[in-house]
Amino acid sequence: GAVVSQHPSRVICKSGTSVKIECRSLDFQATTMFWYRQFPKQSLMLMATSNEGSKATYEQGVEKDKFLINHASLTLSTLTVTSAHPEDSSFYICSALPTGRHRAFFGQGTRLTVV
Amino acid sequence: DQQVKQNSPSLSVQEGRISILNCDYTNSMFDYFLWYKKYPAEGPTFLISISSIKDKNEDGRFTVFLNKSAKHLSLHIVPSQPGDSAVYFCAASANSGNTPLVFGKGTRLSVIA
């Protein structure tokens, strides 16, 4: 099956610093990638939709200046958490949707801990 | 407004028995439904899907049933195995191929040996 690689899988950073998370589709092209966040014992909440070559579309309540998304190629999207705070600690998951398909493939997730 | 609902946060089933996970949706534009399985600290993995033109799809021990008139789908796992213990997310997609999946809150399945 299609593979989506998300890196890093785990990161600890100091409050006030920025963290970049990468999401790569390894064997298919993805015009669209999605970034989700999961709080403990809760569902996956869509943060933003990332479209190759254009600006990301953010869901209501998600600060676009805090969660910077770049989708520079058909196989790579990055999420940068800027000026991270402890409340940003969460599990972030990306998914990539092969062009024209309904079925999305997920990365392994990134556990972010801000101390 | 939650468009995809999984009303049971948890379910316990004995090994060898059938597990039935339920999902309801409200958006009539949804026409493709997926089930994902998620272990702790891992990304969700695709399990099975169904298009709205069908009412049943089967893959090994997993069968998904779709009742469009009731806007309801269910995932049946039979026989259940301890390795099936995980959180199961129901997701739905509308017909454009590029719309994000809308997820339910998940149901934690525990299969007891």
Structure, explained:
The complex is a heterodimer of chains A (about 120) and B (about 110). With about 120 residues, chain A is mainly beta. Chain A has strands at about 5, 10-15, 20-25, 30-40, 45-50, 55-60, 65-75, 75-80, 90-95, 105, 110-115. Chain A contains no helices and 11 strands. Chain A is globular and about 40 Å long. In chain B, about 0% of the residues lie in helices and about 55% in strands. Chain B has no helices and 11 strands. Chain B has strands at about 5, 10-15, 20-25, 30-40, 45-50, 55-60, 60-65, 70-75, 85-95, 100-105, 105-110. In chain B, strands 2, 4, 5, 9, 10 and 11 form a 6-stranded mixed sheet that branches. A 5-stranded antiparallel sheet of chain B has the order 1-3-8-7-6, with no helix packed on it. The chains are: A mainly beta (about 120), B mainly beta (about 110). At the A-B interface, strand 4, strand 5, strand 9 and strand 10 of A face strand 4, strand 5 and strand 10 of B.
Major sheet attributes of chain A: 7 strands, mixed
Task: Classify the beta-strand content of chain A into a percent band.
Answer: over 45%
Give the N-to-C terminal Cα separation of chain A.
Answer: 37 Å
Proportion of residues in helical segments of chain B: under 10%
Write down the overall geometry of chain A.
Answer: globular
- For the report, how would you describe the main beta sheet of chain B? 6 strands, mixed
Counting copies of identical and different chains, the oligomeric state is: heterodimer
Q: Find the count of extended strands of chain A (DSSP E, 2+ residues).
A: 11
Radius of gyration of chain B: 13 Å
Largest interface (C-beta under 8 Å): A-B, 28 and 21 residues
Mean pLDDT of chain B: 92
